[in-house]
Design a protein that fits this description.
The protein is α+β, with helices and mostly antiparallel strands. Helices cover 36% and strands 26% of the residues. It has 3 helices and 12 strands, in the order ααββββββββββββα. The radius of gyration is 52 Å and the shape is rod-shaped. 18% of the residues are buried. The C terminus is likely disordered. Involved in formation and maintenance of cell shape. It comes from Tahibacter amnicola.
């Protein structure tokens, strides 16, 4: 007979039956524990029960795991954003430093080349920096940071590490302006280094071109020939590179040959230049050379000797 819902009889009541039931239950428990300990008979059952209960654990922990994942994602995103910003700033700073180092290295290279030119020309030179440059087709000029107060004079030749750039055309107290060899109003006497042919190179208004017209048709000139200063006119000392012939043809009349040359100087890239100062020759005759031998007696002693009287015998 089933117990009613209001029946509150205990599982183990008083009496011999209840005591026997308790003993049976305890014996069964002990037997199960011994069997499980000795033979691991209930391990498979526990695994099945664990697999059945595991989804309940995950479902119960799902809200906490979701909240933790959201907090971690937000924190990671913020940290990654900050780290990305720091890395971007560090990259920009490093790039700026590298660019500065490259610029300094290039400047050192140019200065080294200028110093080598200074040691090789055998003339007095003065270093100057470009302040401004004008490469207009009708006006090719550069401005330098030295002037009359630094000893600059009109007509001084200006060159870089590769060749002649121009000459000083205007001098102010602390600045000077130089006309480039490519200016349309400029001409420079040159010599073909290979053959010795003398001619004149004219500015074309373009920083990468010089025109050499009125060349005799029989002249030996060809692309690749080097043009150097001839020294005629007294403005440019002889022997400095000026340009290289790039093409040779005939003029419109057909009576003369005409050539085009590329300037040797880096007119668009040079930042430092040299101003030539010819070494002045000594003024007056050379000093007398001592012929050697015993020194002459002093004038006073010679006079006394000449005026002395010989005593009578």
């Amino acid at each position: 007979m089933a117990l009613a819902r209001t029946d509150t009889s205990p599982l183990f009541g008083s009496g011999a039956t209840s005591t026997l039931r308790l003993i049976v239950y305890l014996s069964a428990c002990v037997a199960l524990m011994v069997a499980d300990h000795r033979g691991q008979y209930l391990a498979q059952l526990r695994q099945y029960l664990h697999l059945m209960i595991e989804p309940v654990y995950h479902a119960a922990a799902l809200p906490a795991d979701a909240a933790r994942a959201v907090r971690k994602a937000v924190a990671d995103r913020s940290a990654l954003t900050e780290e990305n910003q720091r890395l971007r700033e560090a990259l920009l700073l490093t790039q700026a430093r590298l660019n500065r180092l490259d610029s300094v290295a290039e400047q050192n290279t140019r200065l080294k080349e200028l110093l080598e030119v200074q040691h090789s020309v055998g003339m007095g030179v003065q270093l100057a920096k470009l302040v401004d440059i004008v490469l207009d087709p009708y006006r090719q000029r550069i401005m330098l940071d030295v002037g009359a107060n630094q000893g600059v004079v009109l007509g001084q030749a200006v060159l870089d590490a590769y060749g002649v750039m121009g000459q000083i055309s205007e001098v102010l107290p602390n600045t000077a302006t130089a006309i480039l060899i490519t200016d349309p109003t400029h001409a420079i006497p040159v010599t073909v280094d290979r053959t010795g042919l003398r001619t004149v190179a004219y500015g074309s208004g373009s920083s990468d071109r010089l025109d050499i017209p009125n060349i005799p048709l029989s002249a030996d000139i060809k692309p690749g020939d080097k043009l150097v200063t001839s020294g005629l006119g007294g403005r440019f000392p002889a022997g400095f590179p000026v340009a290289e012939i790039t093409s040779v043809g005939t003029d419109s009349s057909g009576m003369f040959a005409a050539a085009v040359a590329r300037p040797s100087a880096a007119l668009e890239r040079s930042g430092e230049v040299l101003l030539l100062r010819p070494l002045t020759d000594p003024v007056g005759p050379p000093a007398l050379v001592d012929p050697g031998g015993p020194p002459a007696p002093p004038p006073e002693e010679a006079t006394v000797t000449a005026d002395a009287k010989v005593p009578p015998p």
